[in-house]
Specification:
The complex is a heterodimer of chains A (251) and B (330). Chain A has 251 residues and is an alpha/beta fold. Chain A is built from eight helices and twelve strands. A six-stranded mixed beta sheet of chain A has the order 6-9-10-3-11-12, sandwiched between helices. In chain A, a hairpin with a 2-residue loop joins strand 7 and strand 8. The longest helix of chain A is centred in the last third of the chain and has 17 residues, at 181-197. The mean pLDDT of chain A is 90. In chain B, the strands form two sheets. In chain B, strands 1-4 form a two-stranded antiparallel ribbon. A two-stranded antiparallel sheet of chain B has the order 2-3. Chain B has helices at residues 2-26, 28-43, 50-75, 83-99, 104-127, 133-152, 162-169, 177-195, 197-207, 209-214, 219-245, 256-267, 278-297, 303-327; strands spanning 157-158, 171-172, 175-176, 247-248. Chain B starts with a helix and ends with a helix. The chains are: A alpha/beta (251), B mainly alpha (330). Chains A and B meet through helix 2 and strand 8 of A and helix 1, helix 9 and helix 10 of B.
């Protein structure tokens, strides 16, 4: 539990004159669910984008399993086993392509014949079935276009796509914000199932404290681009976290 | 619990019905081609003979080669307006080089490299200089056309060496080589699109570029390569054209862009990218050829073909909208 997988130290990021992050520290331990909470503009998304390689910090260090790392492109983070499921489904899934095509997007299995990389459709189909079964996700036909799936199915598919490989850190950006009550519950169940069945650390960004207290082991609060405190879920209350978020009381 | 199963079976039925409609829409273009052929055989005098079918395919060949490149660009969600100009530019340079008594094979290779370079330039302008594809290819469309005109002062170059004419006007046992070339290119690129990793990336980039990028697909590379292919195919179409006519004019292909684009769209390739395939585009090419052939046989002015094409385009775009709505979850 105390093994650090990711350690971000004194991260700073400015967009023009706007300070998005100031000296932010963020640590992810092994096989935990850590929630990153804060008001709009607190810097949650910026921090996560830096961790997923979308852009570099202005200053600060990132360590992954004890080694310092530098990302040039999101694929660098992916190579290390850091995967992000973005808040907006429309930034993850291609709606007019099939379920299998989406699951393997960018990482298609191929057989090389002469110079050409031919798709290995059979093995992709088989692996898709396996991954979805592993996560207990129920999608009627894998040849279906993703546009025909429900919101909950799409979110589940997005998570399945992210953890198809061995993933060490899974980042979920507002995984339930676009879903109905029943679908949200399904997705939370899936996240818990993931933590219990695999060796994976999960970072969840959320607005919904109910949800955070439901699934997170630890809660990290950001306020106005700075650390505002962190607590183990079992040692804190919603009131305390809310106070940290809005800065009503110094810890 | 009971209610849930009921709900499910209801969506199942809807899904099946939608699948059937989509199945028909995807083959719609070939159904239309079939209807037109039957109509032609029954009602159009002179339609039903092999020479005429050969003419239709002949008319389709240069257009088909261009439609492949345009379709690839459209599948990524981008226009390529420069295909007709690259055709003329490569044709003119090829004819000029041939006058220096350079072996035809080398001339052909140089022409293809001109197309490749022009297409690559399109890709660079769009992805690296970040110009809108429409604007970028509008610029190169004018640039290559103007340069082709300027080099020869608007004149036509006649009498090309036999090696240069072979692909455009040669035959194998009476069957025109250019038809065979066009059909094999369609088969080749169809397989590339549907069976290879690169082909799949074209669809994904066209459907959702942000998702493609987030998944680690090199979107710039995909689009630059697609435009490079389109440019190369345009130059190749130029080779066929100067070979067929035994002359190179800087005005070649000045309105073929609209034919190639309408063929792709009528065939069902979506302007928004990510939907459609090359066999549908081939259907579009052949349909356009059949229509102008029929109007020709009827002695109707070819100008009316444009009006018919407008109607077809309208229908095609409406079908595209319907299809997009059908695959959505409601």
């Amino acid at each position: 539990m105390n093994e650090k997988v990711v350690e971000m130290v004194k991260i700073n990021k400015k967009f023009g004159e706007v300070v998005a992050l100031k000296d932010v520290d963020f640590t992810v331990y092994r096989n935990e669910i850590v929630a990153l909470v804060g008001d709009n503009g607190a810097g949650k998304s910026t921090l996560i984008k830096i961790l997923s390689g979308a852009f570099p910090p202005d200053s600060g260090k990132i360590f992954f399993e004890g080694k310092e790392i530098f990302f040039k492109h999101p694929s660098d983070a992916i190579k290390l086993g850091i995967r992000t499921v973005h808040q907006k489904m429309e930034e993850i899934l291609a709606l007019n392509q099939t379920v299998v095509s989406n699951l393997f997007m960018g990482e298609e299995k191929t057989k090389k014949i002469f110079f050409f990389k031919f798709l290995d459709k059979k093995s992709m189909l088989r692996e898709s079935e396996r991954v979805l079964a592993r996560l207990r996700i129920n999608i009627p036909s894998l040849h279906q276009l993703v546009g025909g799936l429900s919101g909950g199915q799409r979110q589940a598919l997005a998570i399945a796509k992210a953890i198809r490989h061995r993933v060490k850190v899974l980042i979920l950006d507002e995984p339930t914000s676009a879903l109905g009550v029943r679908e949200s519950r399904e997705v939370l169940k899936l996240i818990r199932h993931l933590k219990n069945s695999e060796d994976i650390s999960i970072v969840v960004i959320s607005h919904d404290l109910e949800e955070v207290f439901d699934i997170a082991d630890r809660i990290v609060v950001l306020r106005k681009g700075q650390n505002a405190g962190e607590r183990y879920t079992r040692d804190t209350t919603k009131d305390e976290i809310i106070k940290m978020i809005i800065g009503a009381e110094v810890m | 619990m009971e209610q849930v199963t009921e709900e499910l079976s209801d969506t199942d039925v809807k899904l099946k019905r939608r699948k059937r409609i989509i199945w028909i829409i995807e083959r719609f273009i070939w159904i239309v081609v079939g209807v037109f052929i039957i109509f032609g055989i029954i009602f159009v005098p002179g339609f039903k003979n092999w020479l005429n079918f050969r003419n239709i395919l002949l008319h389709s060949s240069i257009l088909g080669v261009l439609a492949i490149g345009e379709s690839l660009c459209l599948l990524t969600g981008n226009f390529d307006l420069s295909i007709g100009s690259i055709l003329a530019f490569a044709g003119i340079l090829g004819a000029l080089i041939a006058k220096w008594k350079i072996p035809s094979l080398i001339t052909i290779i140089i022409m293809l490299f001109i197309g490749l370079g022009a297409g690559f330039l399109n890709g660079i302008l769009i992805r690296k200089i970040k110009l809108n594809a429409f604007v970028a290819t509008l610029i190169t469309m004018l640039a290559w056309r103007g340069t082709a005109m300027g080099i020869v002062g608007g004149r036509t170059i006649w009498d090309l060496p036999e090696g240069l004419r072979l692909l455009g006007s040669g035959t194998i046992k009476g069957f025109p080589i250019q038809i065979l070339i066009m059909l094999s290119l369609f088969v080749f690129f169809h397989i590339a699109l549907t069976q290879t990793k690169f082909g799949r990336h074209i669809y994904i980039v066209g459907d959702n570029e942000v998702a493609a990028y987030n998944s680690g697909i090199n979107t710039d590379k995909v689009i630059i390569i697609v435009f490079t292919i389109s440019g190369t195919l345009s130059a190749f179409a130029g080779l066929l054209m100067i070979g067929r006519l035994n002359a190179a004019s800087p005005t070649y292909g000045s309105d073929i862009l609209f034919d190639a684009m309408s063929a792709a769209i009528i065939g069902g390739i979506s302007l928004h990218g990510g939907i459609g395939n090359l066999l549908m585009a081939l259907g579009g090419v052949i349909l356009l050829s059949i229509i102008s052939n029929m109007l020709n046989l009827y002695g109707v002015s070819p100008y009316w073909a444009t009006t018919v094409r407008a109607l077809l385009l309208l229908i095609a775009v409406l079908l595209d909208t319907i299809k997009r709505r059908l695959v959505r979850y409601e």
